[in-house]
Design goal:
113 residues, mainly alpha, 5 helices, 78% helix
Amino acid sequence: MPARRFTAEQVDAAVEALSADPERFAHAQEIVAHAAPGLQRVLNEALHAGGWFGEAHEKQVTGAAQTEDPSEREAAVRVLIAEETRLSMLVGVAAGLELARELYEPTPSQSEE
């Protein structure tokens, strides 16, 4: 895959195209299901390397769990889950972009196979 830079408008158009045709995900879902264990490992390593699941994360979990008011505790847990989901999605997308690059631009050892 050639190195390219994309404008915000191009990315917005691509996202819109993906949301307009759910069938486009069928093959991608097959690939991801096959690669899930390896992708999970990449995601976990990236999150740990970025410090996302270190001491600060543990403090957030403890703080949410120890909130006395049940409705406030529920809200804190929901916020924590939403933040972790967004972060995981962002790291997952970055991993997906690099996976696509790797598939389109194999390393010398891969191209010899």
